[in-house]
Amino acid sequence: MKHTRAVFASTAAIFALALTGCPPEPEHVHQWGAWVQTTAPTCTEAGVETRTCALDATHTETRDIAALGHNYGNWTVTTPATYTADGIETRTCSHDATYKETRPIPQLFYTAVSATNLETWLTNQPDNTAETPYIVKLNVSELGGSSDTAGSAGYVLKANNNTKYVSLDLSGSTITSIGNSAFSYCISLTSITIPDDVTSIGNSAFDHCYGLASVTIGTGVTSIGNNAFFSCNNLTAIDVNPSNTAYSSTDGVLYNKNKTALIQYPAGKTESAFIIPNGITSIGIYAFFSSGLISVTIPNGVTSIGDAVFYNCYSLASITIPNSVTSIGGQTFDRCASLASVTFQGTIPADNFGYDSYGNYWGSPFNGDLQAKFYATDSANGTPGTYTTTAPVSDSSVWTKQ
Ligand SMILES: [Zn+2]
Ligand SMILES: [Zn+2]
Fold first, then answer.
1. Phi-psi region of 374 (alpha: psi -120 to 50; beta: other; left: phi over 0)
2. Per-residue pLDDT averaged across 118-141, rounded?
3. How many structural domains is the chain composed of?
4. Are residues 59 and 37 both part of a single domain?
5. I want to staple 88 with a disulfide (CB 3.0 to 4.6 A). Which of 35, 79, 127, 328 is the partner?
C-alpha cells in the first residue's frame, strides 16, 4: 500500500514540471467595440457585421444581418388594357429597382354600336369561356327584332353560341323594350344589364339562356312577360333597381313590388332550402322550374300555385300545401323525381286542380296517381292529410295516404 502511494506521487511531480516548463500567453477579457456593418444586406442575401477587441485588433467577431426582403410600392400601369388585350401593371422594390413584379390588367370592354358591329367584332375575337366573357356595351336604338332575325343582337349572340361568351351592358342603348324571345336560346350570354328606359321585357325574352348568370333590371321596367327567364338553369340572380315601381328583388329572387307575388326563383341558385316570404299570395308560372332546392316552405296565405311552378325540381323531397291554397295549376310538381311526401293541410276544389288560368286542363299537378288518391274519398274537394310514396319517380309514383 505504501509502495503504491510513492509511485503515484512521483508521476504527479513529473506532470507538474511539464506544465510550468512552457507557460501560456496571458489571457484578457475582450473589450468589444460596437458592431460595424462590413457587408450590406440585400433584398435576398444576408449582410455581415463585425466587432473588434480594443485590446487586440486581431480579435474579431462577426454575425449575419438578415436579408431585407422586398419592399414593393404601389402598382402602376405600364401597359394600359385595351379591348383586345390585357394591360400590365408593375411595382418595384424600393431597395433595389431591378426587382419588379408585374400582373395583368383585365381587358376592357368593347362598345358596339349595332348588331352588325357586334357580330364583326365578335367574329374577330378568339373563343373564350363563360368565366371570362367579353364585356360588351351595346349602344343601339333597337335590338333588331326577334332572335331569329339576322342582324339582331340576339341573333348575333346565338350565332356565336358556346364559343364567344358575352356580358352585355345595354345601359348606353336608347331602347324602351326587349321584345318577345329577343335573346331566346342565347346560351353564350352570361349577364345583362337592362337600362332604366326599358319599360317592358317580352315573353320568353331570355328563355333557355343556359349561360345567363345574372340579370340587372333598371328602374323603368313595368312589365315582364311570361317565361321571360324560363329554363335559365345557371341564373343565380335577378337584381331589380330598388327605385323600380313594379318589381323588386331580394337575394336575387324576383317579386312584384309589394311582394305579394313571387315571379322567378333563379334556377341556378345553390341554396338547398327556401322559405317563401310571408305576404306572398301567388306563385307564378314556372317560378321554381328546374331549381335544385330540396326544401321549399310555402307560407299560409298563398292562395294559388301556378302552372308548372315546381316542374323538374328534381331534388325537392317533400312539400306542404297550406290550408290557404285554393288552386294548383297544371303540372305544378311534374318531374319532381325525389318528391316522396305531400301534405295537404286543407281541401282544394277539383275544378282548381291542374287547370291553367284559362280553364284549360294542363295535366295533374303531381306525378303518378296522387291526384286520384287525393280525390278518392271526396271527389269535389279532396282529403287533407299526408300522402307518401316509397319509390318517387319523375312521372309514375304510387301514392299512399298516411
Ligand atoms: Zn481581445
Ligand atoms: Zn427588393
1. alpha
2. 90
3. 2
4. yes
5. 79
